[in-house]
Amino acid sequence: MFDRNQLAAAIRYEGGVSRRLFLSYTASLAALPLLAQRTAAAERQVSFSANPFTLGVASGDPSARGVVLWTRLAPKPLDPDGGMPPEPVTVNWEIADDEAMTQIVRKGTRIATPQLGHSVHVDLRSGLEPDRWYFYRFHVGDAVSPVGRTRTLPNPDALPEKLKFAFASCQHYETGLYTAYEQMARDDLDLVCHLGDYIYEGPATQGKIRQHNSPEIKSLADYRKRHALYRSDPLLHGMHAKCPWFVTWDDHEFDNNCAGAISEEKDVDPVAFLERRANAYQAYYEAMPLRREQIPVGADLQLYRKASYGRLAELLVLDARQYRSDQPNGDKHSVINEEALNPQSTMLGAKQRGWLQSSLITSQATWNVLAQQVMMGMATIARSGLEGKSSMDQWPGYAYERMALMKFIQERQVPNPIVLTGDIHSNWANELRVDDRKQDEPVVATEFVGTSISSGGNGKQTPEYFLLLHGANPFVKYHSSERGYVRCTVTPESWTSDYVAVEDVTKPGGNVVTRMSFVVEAGKTGLNKV
Length: 530
Ligand code: FE
Ligand code: CA
Fold this sequence. Notes:
Radius of gyration: 24 Å
Strand order of the largest sheet: 11-10-9-19-20-21-22
Helix content: 10-25%
Number of helices: 10
Number of strands: 22
Largest sheet: 7 strands, mixed
CATH class of the largest domain: Alpha Beta
CATH architecture of the largest domain: 4-Layer Sandwich
Structural class: alpha+beta
Distance between the termini: 73 Å
Oligomer: single chain
Number of domains: 3
Bound molecules: fe (iii) ion, calcium ion
Strand content: 15-25%
């Protein structure tokens, strides 16, 4: 007969409950209190009829000493419950020096609970060495996950020679294949940043490359199933297993063009809209390798955060959706109007803006990187009927805050500010000023806008449109609407961005080319073609 201490020791046993303890422990169940019986139920989940690791493994938010290891148990990923029983399940994790998993450096146990969709987040804060690769995997019952590879960041006071990473956005499942991730997996990257539209909330539509698995998603089960549909793509979870990711969202993880608690058409009661947001945010947390600070609190989830890649780069991951005031002009294109210039209008919200400012003035990094959603360049559209107008869903709709941020960066002499952007399904390279309409003012920052992974389907190069765009907006130095992503190589001397294009996303194995590269030299402003 076990007493409570022996039971606790059995549950704490690293690598799982040993067979001897397990057997005698199940045999003594009847006499144990309720909590122990629940844990015992967890221990009984020792066999699965199907692979519980259909969603792969992932890691994220590395620090110099730790990283988040992630998986989600889902033998039937497209079922509302992922094919899991409504019970907690014990999962063992291990992290090793080698891919064969023979030199284990740390291991432990997590309980995957039905409340969090049987997701597993191992939030390691210490015990790892800085600036090196590790391998990890999970065990549940007799099932073993694939081995993932991850990497810690350099020590905060180190000056690394190089950072090589990619940023991506907008991966509509129905409009294209994830060939971009197949190429990215060959790029030997230290990390990936995802800037949002990781899933799309819309219904299944006919006549596409592949199909969504439900009508428009609203419930927690809907959002879970949609994340599972996307993540069951082997090219996507294959890239997650290659290196750690920093993720942030845009609108489609919840609802198109949402702004705070306000829906696109303002036709949804804010209380109902926030209930839906709680579902969307919880499913997002469950699906991503995020730290405990990102556990949703009601309809809120703090996603803005930062990481130091030594003194080489400070990565400031922003959330330009959750705290926004409503878009001006009913979200339609507009000239930069009074509403956009209203000091009360905000993309970031006062708290995040203050955090961003404080992060920028305390940064010791050579490169200061804003990983965020929507285009900061105050571009006007160069298509007939829209001349002189800008997207009010992007930073021009919040021009007061946008210009104040650039002025802050300029006045505080923040070194080498770089803005990374998704959302717009096209590639741009922009030289940002306090007011981009004033070409004679000095350049303050550089913006690299990365196109979509798949959203919009096959795109094209756009030299004629670029000329029109450049004519109306001389700060725009490149435009293309091909599919793909941006690969960045960062050293203490320079920042190089390669625009990687996938020529056909409708068939597997589409041709991939590096279409254009720009370099920014440290200590200087301005984009130079390579
Ligand atoms: Fe998108
Ligand atoms: Ca978007």
